[in-house]
Specification:
The chain is mostly beta strands and 377 residues long. Helices cover 14% and strands 52% of the residues. The protein is elongated, with a radius of gyration of 33 Å.
Length: 377
């Protein structure tokens, strides 16, 4: 009796495993390359397709050496490298129409197609297949922006490019009312309160151990945001700036006094990971990442005064310490962007950086930055 019961259970488990394998196979068949002749007829196999020559597609069935060529009129669609292509008619530069296979880069209530040939790079389809002309695409996007209040002006942020248009149509189909990102780069004006940490062994005459020298200075530069289209709240932020800090300090003891001055030209660069909150006009953000700097034209000056019982003596020593020009470290910051027009914003940021060199010097910069976005493309 126990044997028949176990056999019955084994059959049930085997049946469930078979069903699971069939479901997995069906799922895989939806993502593998295949030709779809109609709603009920499709073939798997190898697809041979050239993106720059979208007039034909070739297909080879599994286990066969026969390659069959299909024209756009022959099939309903095909899937190649995970992308779906449909037979459509595009407009050539002379105004005539030609049948080709177009990639549907967005599929939903509204489809978006990319065309590598013809007078238009993009087409869209809601009820009718229509071109998306470069000189008129914003008017079309405006008509689709009524479902989202914040898109009332933000549709103008959309650039005539695959990533930007795909972002708009994808979120339109998902009914997601989120900020439309755009290319951001511009000028930065910075004021830094800088602290230079001098190690005890920075020069032979140092009788004061580790100490710090402070400086305040302006710097000017450029910044840019690299968009991560799949993650619209995230950016890759870079900053490049140039400044001339000048440090000075008076150090005293009962027997000696040092008047120290330290200057250099400093080229600064950072590359950070930036997160922007999805608010409409004022958008807070924070960033963190690696930083580097290069100190050039370094000059150091020390006036050494000795207090002896018989006399007070003084001497000047220039370039009294060895200062390595390359610095490496990290940066972090918080800020807010003010978006006052489409593709226009300014931002205010407070950031800090920690930079180190091989001579055990350390530079700490606490910086307030005003960034002005420029839209030139």
């Amino acid at each position: 009796m126990d044997f028949f019961y176990k056999n019955h259970i084994l059959k049930k488990v085997s049946f469930l495993i078979l069903i699971a394998l069939m479901i997995c196979q069906a799922g895989l068949s939806q993502t593998r390359d295949h030709i779809i002749l109609s709603d009920t007829i499709s073939f798997g196999g190898q697809i041979l397709f050239n993106y720059e020559n979208p007039y034909i597609v070739r297909h080879k069935k599994p286990g066969s050496n026969v390659i069959k060529t299909y024209m756009p009129r022959d099939i309903s669609r095909f899937v190649y490298e995970g992308k779906t292509f449909y037979p459509k008619q595009v407009i050539e530069k002379d105004g005539s129409k030609i049948s080709v296979f177009l990639e549907a880069i967005e599929q939903g209530d509204v489809k978006l197609y990319y065309s590598p040939i013809g007078i238009h790079s993009f087409y869209w389809e809601k009820d009718t297949f229509l071109p998306l002309p470069k000189n008129n695409y914003l008017n079309i996007l405006e008509s689709l922006s009524e479902q989202c209040n914040r898109w009332e002006n933000q549709y103008k942020n959309v650039n005539y490019s695959k990533n930007s248009l795909l972002f708009f149509f994808e979120n339109y189909n998902k009914n997601k009312c989120i900020n439309i990102p755009y290319v951001s780069f511009g000028l930065s004006i910075n004021y830094s309160f800088s602290t230079l940490h001098m190690p005890a062994d920075s020069y032979n005459e140092n009788l004061f151990g580790d100490y710090e020298i402070d400086a305040g200075f302006f710097s000017f530069g450029f910044y840019g945001d690299y968009l991560l289209w799949d993650y619209p709240k995230y950016r890759i932020l870079y900053n490049i700036s140039f400044g001339k800090p000048s440090y000075s300090k008076e150090l005293k003891s009962p027997i000696v006094r040092h008047d120290v001055k330290f200057d250099y030209n400093f080229l600064y660069f950072d590359l950070s990971y930036k997160y922007v909150f999805n608010t409409k006009t004022f958008r807070p953000y924070f960033n963190i990442g690696p930083a580097a700097g290069y100190a050039d034209n370094t000059s150091s000056y020390m006036y050494h005064v000795s207090f002896n019982p018989d006399a007070i003596t003084g001497r000047i020593k220039e370039d009294f310490t060895d200062f390595s020009p390359f610095h490496y470290g990290f940066t972090a910051g918080v800020g807010v962007e003010y978006h006052f027009q489409p593709r226009r914003h300014i931002s205010l940021q407070f950031g800090t950086s920690r930079l180190y060199n091989t001579n055990h010097f350390k530079i700490i910069n606490n910086t307030l930055s005003l960034k002005i976005n420029l839209w030139l493309i």
